[in-house]
Amino acid sequence: MCISWNHTDDYIACGGDRGLLKVIQLSTSAKQLDNTATGQSDIALNQTLEGHSGSIKVIVWNEKHQKLTTADDRGYINVWVLHNGIWYEEMINSRNNSTVNSMKWSKDGNKICIAYNDGMVIVGSVDGNRLWSAEIKHNIVAVEWSPRDKLILLGASSGEIYVYDCKGNFQSKLKVPVALNHLENQYLVSIQWSTPRYDLTFASQQRSLAIIFQQGYLQLMLNERDKEPVSANLPIRVITAKWNPSGTVLALVAEKPELPTGERSMIYFINSLGEPIHTLKVPGTEARSCSWDSAGLRLVIAADYSIILTNIRMEYKWKYFSDTVVYSFISSESKDTCIAFWDTKSNEVHFKHVKELDFIDACKEYALIVHSCEKNANKYFLQICKGTGSPVDFTIIDWRVHFATMNNRCVVVADTDRFSVWYFKTISQADDLQTFSLRKSSRQSEKRITYQIDNASLGAAVEYTGPPDKKTVDSICCIHATDSLLLIAKKSGQLCKYKFPSLLVLKPSKLKSRPTKMTLNCTNTLTTIRTLAYIDSSHVLRLFSLTNDSNEVAGFERRDVWDFKWSTLDPELLAVTEKNRLCIFKGTKAQVEECNLAKTTYQIMDDLAFLQEPILFNARMCELSDVALRTIYLDDLIKDQKPNSADYFLEIKTQLLQVATNFAKQKQLQELASFAEQNTHPAIWKLLAETALLECNLELAELAFIKLLDYNSIQFLRTLITISDEQLKRAEILSFLGDLEQAEKIYINCDRIDLAIALNQKYGNWTRVVELLRDDVGVENDTRLDQAYTAIGDQMAEKNNWQQAAHYYELAHASEKLIQAYYILDRFDDLRKLVDSLTDFNALKKTAVLFSSAGLYNEAEAAFLKCKECESNNLEISNLSKQLNKLLKSHTQNQIIEQSNEITASKNIAQIVDAVRSCQKAGRYLEAAKLLYQLAKSDTVKTSGLSIMKQIHVLVALLIEEHKKRLKVKQSSKKDKDNQTNNAILSDLLEDENKLENSNLTENAWKGAKAYHFYTLGQRFLYSGDLHTALKIANYLCNFEDIINPVEIYSFLALTSGHCGQFATCNKAFVKLEKLTSSNDTFPGENEYEDLAFQIFKEHAVKDSIQDTFPCPTCSSEIPLHHTVCNNCDHSFSLCMVSGKTLLEPSEIWTCRRCCQLADKKSISDLSICVLCHNINE
């Protein structure tokens, strides 16, 4: 049998013996699965296709054109199309007595490659025409297209793999692993090439090309040119293999011949590094094929005469903490990993992007993010974030992190041989002005200690200072930290224990198997038994007692477990998910109790499950209390990427609480009170208190509050008795229970807006307070409005939304808070204006200090001087004046320029960046541009990559544009003054312009950014195969020799012209290269260029090949397409920034309003921003 899943419309095509071919369509989502009794999927379509007489061998989908292609063992190929919900036969093809071994549609659906058993390979179009064919003297058994359809890989049964381009030209022969060369009877079964998640620049970790052999050997590669592939030898016999849609998991349909019949078939899952993940046993005698759904959450298997549908539990990187869900997904726009922080109470989502995410963990109100550094893949970035995603503290580890965990004080990371403990710092509210960015310069004081796992002798752990590459025999396999204990498990099963905060080494224990996940239960008393729950590599859940003798808990072992969760309140309560089933345990045994109440028997199953029986379950567990489990449909959330509703959560109550809730709904207060007496639990008493309050039964409510020892609520009842108005009493009860909306309505209906305002003030609903105050006419409205606006601003500031915070502080006239907001937003112009209106001494003093810290010494002086006008404290003013004078003497304008020159000469990139920020804050944009321009010319930055060089030059241009705006404002303001002559204005402007050593920088501000943009664009066209456009851009780059190294430009020109057959242009490029290298001692490869030129022009004549031309608009002479200058009249042509097209028609040219660069209107129409300066395309 063979099977294939259509990802567009959920069609599944399955073929079998004697021409049996079926197409079915499923209609079951993750949420529907929980509500079905059997877990079976609904079938929307079940159609049998008639047209084959032999056994079906190959089934492939063309999802773009909605076609199904099938081939049988008699050589017939049928193409099926969908019409009005029914599949019809469109065309039939047959090659006389030759059968199809493999066939594959290209990713764009326009071409199909078919391999026959006689070695013939045919590539055809979607309409049935043959494009090209090749005859290979081997039995081709596997066909695969590259992710961008540029290459075709043809695999012979012997293991040889031939690489062709999409036009039929042989490219190379792919090397198999060295380990396979000595094998006998090796047989290739499959080649699978997934689309990488990341761009090529960041695809270092994910190997997407898999070559699988029947004997269990496989080779994983980044691409066909990978010189360091990953090889694996699996103890299985492979039948076929399929990548999941994201290319992160490879499913191998395999069998173990040594096992008995009926137990041999399995699905063997590995990751993109060749590491085993899981093994799934397949019922039946023989499994033959498998296929993934579009989300990678289901796998369909063809085994014997059955179709088996399995659910896949993806191991997402996510956590739930403090009513916040932090999760990650691959961004479809930027191709990197996006981390989302979703506050489920306010329904606000905050995003942050990283290139390669490794771990997410959380504890209480902080989350841990571990990801590799963008510029150095060998270093890992550890970041502590708040619930809004705002960074709190960070550190960098210079070795690969395999495991990570945290408690409320520290983070523990580990590889296989060592672990490191990092005590992070949190930002308190008192440190208002000390932002996260200001702490980067003081990393020396951080506390991070590394330990070797072998140094575990009793006593305090000793910091490891030996060689970083020291290996241990028994490596680390899992870690877990609580506030008091650090647990580290080894592959042998040994459990190492350390006690915080001294990291005292405790006596190790021995686990029964190797854990992959472990967690300790909570502690609510000093006598709580500490129990460790862990899942091993076989997905068996066991319990281990750390108290007394430290032994395995007898009688408890659960199989096929994929997750578990301890209760945060009850140390004996444990939730376990087994396959599609959720079970809740209390202790290790089921204790079924019968409660006789009001002549009715209620069966309470405290320790077995929440419901009458274990329920079907497909969600992820967030938090388990003692009476309810909160779960989330994480598959749907990650698929949607951004939450669009609150339907992702599912609250599951205990049966005990369900019975009590039913009494409350029926308003049976006496029955509920009796039930609470017999089943004493705080949640039931709380439910009784709330229900009694709503029914105004204060006697029962008081009884419940006494049982709960809630004396504040009892005091509330005393206050409630004094209220005579029944409506106001009802409103007070509703507000006490949290139903603010209904309580406010009652207050307004009773004409008590003052109480409605006080209610919203009490609960911090300041936006509603503003709305009510606007409708209320009173003397104190202005003061209360200012208070409300200030409170809203504080809420925005706490979420790091300083833009909105500044807006509300302005409405509230909160000067001191506004100073802080302006400073954080770098709005120094607004801060200057604010000084004029300030009269408070402390506010002026604070402003002056902030001005001086930002390098704005003139503004600081003005603020200090104004302090004298509004404060009579002569001693303090005298001290401030002395500080100011000392500050101004050491920071004159000339000295600032001299310091900038010293910083530039020191080549310290961090100092230069800080100096640029200071100049920018002080309004010295020209000085900042000069520093950045000098930075771009340094050798260290030039080797950092084209993208970074372009970004630096774009920043230089933007700073110069801002400088020019300031000059225009300055010029217009000076014209208004009668005593200012034109000559004086001109001299001032010239004086400003002379601040740059190179005056061309202001005249051609965008030249550098333009040069590196076209250099990057040319490289992109070269690697995508558009050689002629790359050659045109290479010619255009000759105008930027003062920006880009000429050796790089002419090397690029020689490369592209040689590939395009333009050997006269190639010869000129080599001549230029020889001149450049011969006159420069830094290029020792002069002879190499000569030797290379000799080899090329020995075989090719020095002339350009015939190419299409276009007429010059000035002199009408014919110009080759790759030229950018007319040889007759020297007229130069501009190129489109997007497509590299030569711009000839003025009516079709688009001009950016900011950078004034040009593009073709059709090419830029699909983009929302300018590709050079990122200005919004209107």
UniProtKB/TrEMBL annotation:
List, for all copies, the residue spans of the domain called IFT80/172/WDR35 TPR: 684-773
GO cellular component annotations of the record = intraciliary transport particle A; non-motile cilium
- List each copy of the IFT121-like zinc finger domain by range: 1135-1175
Which SMART domains does this one have? WD40
Q: Where are the WD repeats?
A: 49-80
UniProt keyword list: Cell projection, Cilium, Cilium biogenesis/degradation, Cytoplasm, Cytoskeleton, Repeat, WD repeat
Which sequence ranges are marked TM in the entry?
A: none
Q: Which domain of life is it from?
A: Eukaryota
Q: Which residues form the IFT121-like TPR repeats domain?
A: 1003-1104
Q: Which GO terms describe its biological process?
A: intraciliary retrograde transport; non-motile cilium assembly; protein localization to cilium
**Location of the IFT121/TULP4 N-terminal domain:** 2-313
Q: What is its main location?
A: cytoplasm
In this protein, which residues make up the domain named IFT121 second beta-propeller? 318-651
Location in the cell reads: Cytoplasm, Cytoskeleton, Cilium basal body
Q: What is the protein name given in its UniProt record?
A: WD repeat-containing protein 35
> Which organism does this sequence originate in?
Trichinella pseudospiralis (Parasitic roundworm)
What gene name is given for the protein in this entry? Wdr35
